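Dear Dr. H.,

I hope your travels went smoothly. While you were away I took the liberty of generating a structure for the chain from your last submission, since the lab meeting agenda had it listed for discussion. I wanted you to have the full record in hand beforehand rather than looking at slides cold. The sequence, exactly as received, is reproduced here:
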Amino acid sequence: MEFQKLIEARRSVRKYSPEGKVSRDDILTIIKAAQEAPSWKNSQTGRYYCILSEDMVNRFREECLPEMNRTKSQNAALIVTTFVRDRAGFQKDGTPDNELGNGWGCYDLGLQNENLILKAEELGYATLIMGIRDAGSIRRLLDIPETEIVVAVIAVGKAGEEPARPKRREIEEITKFF
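The corresponding predicted structure, in token form, is as follows:
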């Protein structure tokens, strides 16, 4: 698919079909695309916790997501994305390179997550990035070390709906030239 069409076609989907589960191989392909994103000093701090089994997905949804996101992620595989704290945006001695500190780890992970959702779209899967989740419960259930910051849960599956494309701001509203 042409890149411009791909980015315009991708939507946040909040209803997934029980047909066509995501395979382990497709998840690995999606994460491989995520891994190609640039990162601060090539630190590559993004980490992925993939939940594919129906039992574990249901347990995760019940224990780690609020009701609104439990419903929105039904019938989807789940990927928890984290980044290693105090690496991207920091010197080897632990001092931050600028005022953003761990904001760079979050920025890098955002770039990776964008690649991830676009690759999923290219493979015929829909996605939803969820930031409303219980990080403590996620950390305990998936045994995520304290050295990582839990950022998002991404639902991946076959769309059970076709959301309309939201209106975008006029380019002149968001752009300044000097």
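Two observations you may find useful: The chain has seven helices and four strands. The CA atoms of residues 98 and 120 lie 33 Å apart.

With kind regards,
E. W.
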